[in-house]
Amino acid sequence: MHVPAILPAAADSNSTDILAIANSPVLWACAVGVFLVIVVQSVIYMKAARIAAPHVGMSQAELKTSFRAGAISALGPSLAVVMVAVALLTVFGTPAVLVRIGLIGSVSYETAAAAIAANTAGAELGGPTYTQAVFGLALAAMSLGGAMWMIATLILTPLLKKGDSALRKVNPAIMLVVPGAAMVAAFMVLGIGELPKSWIHVVAFVSSAAIMTGLMVIAKKVNRPWIKEWALGIAIILSLAITYAATRL
Amino acid sequence: MPQATEIHQALGAFDKTTSRWGRITMIIGLFFSLAAPAYLVFFAGLDIQVSGIIAAFGALAAVFGVIWIVEPLTYFPILGASSMYQAFMIGNISNKLLPAAMIAQATIGVKPGTRKGELASVAAICGAATVHLASLFIFVGLLGTWLVSVIPTDIVQTIQFYILPTVMGAVVVQAIVSQKAPRSALIALVVSIIVVSVAFFFKPFGLFSTAVAVIATAVLAWVLRDRKTLGTPEDVPVHATPEGPVY
User: Fold this and answer.
1) Which of A86, B1, B127, B160 is the most exposed place for a label (fewest CB within 10 A)?
2) Cβ neighbours of residue B155 under 8 Å, at least 6 residues apart?
């Protein structure tokens, strides 16, 4: 379907200029929409909490303190997410990064989802086959996948609130083993699948894994949890720098 | 102290407001998050087939389907009903929202699981959301977009080309560390090497390699689990739950 009136001349299925389409005003509008929805939700929730607080013996000052404590403690983790998000701006464009990596999803899940989606079209994330059409497909798959979390939340929350016994009977040992194993396997196979492509891919994967391991060890040795928070961003940026140096050899 | 019935009514009103507006705002958020790809697919003039999207979604479901359902189940007892609608839209639950809620509860000296604790965590998540939206807007939306416009094309190209192995290298290590399940990690490694080798020599298999690796690892991790510590459901102590999903 073609709607040339709202369509910038840039749209071209086979072009690898992702950012021409990824930064389109419509995508920006959608991202701003998600931002505003969260603002509205927070305002409604704070108002409701303020009304309910006195009835449980909680003062407005305590509520304010809670808000401030939450805000301050989020500062570090938020900036750590910012670091990762900036590294991915050239891959997905600003609006998609804001919504998918900054908010609803996370860098690990979204990057994996985009790679899996691109593969189904016989393309690869990032390479010469990463065209505007493949980006569109990847964003559609990422968004639908993210929607499944929200839909599961919308359906399951009322059920769990009612104390649905069938849901509570789910074998906890399965819950403990299977999702974690599935997650590690997804990242592992996507990562190892990159290795045969070129020696630079090997440099990228190995340096990133090595830096992450180093940071995890240091965080544990000196007992500084903030290092763990920043580890992902540091590992990605540093190993991208190492990879860039490797391409220049 | 206020009357018991009054407390009940006030909290009933809080639950009603948050669950109604929590759901409404989440559905609107869902709409905006799907509107962006819908525009690209249907109106941007790109050649994207709906059948292709269904195939991609199917591949994704094979890999992440279990987690879509398990994650809300895992977080419900920790977050409580009202915060569920906040958390799954704001994201970064385990690394940002849960610590924010815990610190707020500790600061004013209330226990999680109490009604006072619930209000404290709702307020803390609102505070965390405010900071998060502001820092994303300033550092990613404004500064990041400017940064991308000034970095040279060859660096942009390097990032695009090698983003997948770079992200996965760090993420694999992070996932292994936070899951604390070395046996599953080893199974995942062996399965991945086999699957990637098969895909290398038999190209068409590549399409299914991720799903096959994930499903095979999940099944093997379950069959080969340490039955001493994970024997029957009753044996699993509550505190043995992992730190939380890694994504």
Assistant:
1) B1
2) A244
In this prediction, residue B157 carries a pLDDT of 85
The residue in chain B having the minimum alpha-carbon distance to the alpha carbon of residue A15 is B46
**What are B106-144's pLDDT values in tens digits?**
889 888 778 888 899 999 999 999 999 999 999 999 999
For the residues B194-212, what does the mean pLDDT come to? 85
Query: Which residue, chain included where needed, has tokens 């407390």?
Result: B7
Tokens found for residue A240: 């991208």
| Residues linked to residue A2 through DSSP beta bridges, in sequence order | B44
Q: What is the SS3 string spanning A120-165? A: HCCCCCCCCCCCHHHHHHHHHHHHHHHHHHHHHHHHHHHHHHCCCH
**Do the chains contact at B100 and A4, CB–CB below 8 Å?**
no
CA distance A222 to chain B (A): 17
How far CA B85 is from CA of A51, A167, B111, B129, B196, in Å, comes to 19, 19, 21, 13, 39
- Helix, strand, coil % over all residues of chain B, rounded to 5: 85, 0, 15
Please check whether residue A188 is in contact with residue B188, taking contact to mean a CB–CB distance below 8 angstroms.
yes
Could you tell me the pLDDT band of residue A242, with boundaries at 50, 70 and 90? Answer: very high
Residue with tokens 């024997």: B231
Closest-CA distance of chain A to residue B111, Å: 13
Q: Is the separation of the CB atoms in B30 and A148 below 8 Å?
A: no
Contact A205, A165 (CB under 8 A): no
**Quick one: residue B180, left, alpha or beta (phi over 0 = left, psi -120 to 50 = alpha)?**
left
* pLDDT for residue B245: 39
A 10 A CB-CB count for A128 gives 10
Distance of CA B145 to the CA centre of its chain: 25
Q: Give domain limits for chain B.
A: 80-150, 152-247
Identity of the residue in B25, B61, B73 whose CB atom sits nearest the CB atom of A40 = B25
Nearest chain B Cα to A48, which residue?
Answer: B14
Residue type, A14: N
Tokens 């919308």 appear where? A154
Q: Six-digit token pair at B30? A: 């869902």
Q: How far is CA B94 from the centre of its chain?
A: 9
DSSP one-letter string for B179-242 = HT-HHHHHHHHHHHHHHHHHHHHSGGGGGGHHHHHHHHHHHHHHHTS-TTTSSSGGG--GGGS-
Pairwise CB contact (< 8 Å): B222 & A109: no
ipTM: 0.84
Cβ-based contacts of A160 with chain B (< 8 Å): 72-73, 76, 81
